[in-house]
Each structure stands twice: as C-alpha cells, then as structure tokens.
What does this fold into?
Amino acid sequence: MDKTTGRTDDKSLFENMTVKEIVTNNFRTAAVFEKHGLDFCCRGNKLLITACEEKGINADKIIEELKTLTTQKIRNESYDEWTLDLLIDYIIQNHHSYVKEMMPIISVHTQKIASVHGTNHAEVIEREKKFAGVSQEFRQHLFKEEDILFPYIKQLVQVNSRHAKAEAPFFGTVKNPIKSMMAEHENAGDEFYEIRNLS
It folds into this structure.
C-alpha cells in the first residue's frame, strides 16, 4: 500500500489474487491469460504469481497487460450524433470484432468444463450445448448484419448525400431485416439468461 495515498498499487493487488478471481472480477482479462496459456479454469485457484512461475512467464509482463486492460476507460460518446456509416464502422471494429474474438475462447472452455465435470454435473453439459447453439446463431447474425444490412444502410447514406434514389433491395424494405435481427437479439438474450441460470 502507498503510505502517501493509502491506496494499494495494482501490482501488489494482482499478485495477491488468484487467476480465477481476476477473471471473475473482469471477464475481459481472460483474453490475457488465454494469450499466454495460463489456465484460469481448472487451475485458476493458484495465485497469479505462482501460475506465472510454474509456466516460466514473467509475471510483471502479465500484470502490465492486466493493468492496461483494466484501466481502459469506457468511451462516453454521443452515438446519436454520429452518421450512420460511422456508427456501423464503430460497431464492426469494436463490438463485432470483440464477439468474434471471445466466442471461440469461451466455447473452448465450456467444452473443457463439460468434458471434465459433465459426469457429475449434467448442467454443465446443457450449458455447453446452449452456448454452442447461441454461438452459431451469433455467427449467422453478424454475417447478416455485415454482409446485408450494414452495406445497404451505407448505400442509403451515400445516395442521400447525392440526393438520389436508392434501388429497392431484395429484402423489400430495410424494416424487414431490422425487425428480424431485433428478434434475434431478444432470442440471444433469452438464451444467455438460461445459460446464466445453469451456472
């Protein structure tokens, strides 16, 4: 603890936490451990410093990455003031890329937990099946947004800037895919709620 501020520095905080505790407090840190091959699941009860020593990994390097990740500020943007094409780019580069990165990582660990503990805990098998299903739905959902809906909206933005008229899309009106994808969002939310109840 810093005697001048009364605060515990981040390094000593992380050193005194188990890997599992760090991930539980901030699930985004799982990506750091995954990158360095540190098990935060079945062997997650080890102190971070111990886990690093056993793997021959520089703990200071891991802690620096964790500090960088956990101190990143959430952007407070006025999204309603953005142009639609800018908003689309932001969604793809930030939210979609994050989902694409994390889904396979989470899937690996749900499968691992199911294979190790499924015999005695049937709920983890059910959870793995549900997550596999919702992951597949998410991949299809992102494809439809990035390859169908978003390009058409960008086309509308360009056409509007030229005061021209857009060609009618094959899906009729833009309301149709939006309505369908909103329903998919709600369905995914229900699936994740059920997964949480199985945890």
User: Anything to note?
Assistant: Residues 1-8 have pLDDT under 50 and may be disordered. The helical segments are 10-15, 19-25, 30-35, 48-55, 59-70, 84-117, 122-161, 175-197. The chain has eight helices and no strands. Residues 34 and 165 are 49 Å apart (CA to CA).
